[in-house]
Amino acid sequence: MDNLRKLDLNLLLTLNALLVERNVTRAASRLNLSQPSVSVQLGKLRDAFDDPLLLPGPRGMLPTARALELLAPLQAVLAQLEQVLLPVAAFEPAQAQVEWKLAAADAAEYAILLPMLPALRAQAPLSRMAVHEAVPARMAQQLENGQIDLGFVAQEEAPAGLRHRLLFREHYVLAGRHDHPLLQAPPSLEQFCALEFIVVSTNGGGYRTAVDVTLEQLGLSRKVVLSVPHFLIVPHLLAASDMVAMLPSRLLKNALGGLRTWEPPVTMPDYDMAMVWHERMHLDPAHRWLREQIAAQL
Question: Is-above-0.90 flag for pTM?
Answer without folding.
Answer: no
